[in-house]
Amino acid sequence: MIYKILWVAFLSTFEIYAAIASGLAFKLSPNIICITTLVGGFTGVFIAAFLGEKIKQFVAKYKKPKPPRENSSKDQLMRKLWDLYGVIGIGFVGTLIIGAPASIGIGYSFGVHPKQLLKWCLIAVFIRSIVYSYFFHFIVHLF
Question: What is the pTM of this model?
Answer without folding.
Answer: 0.80
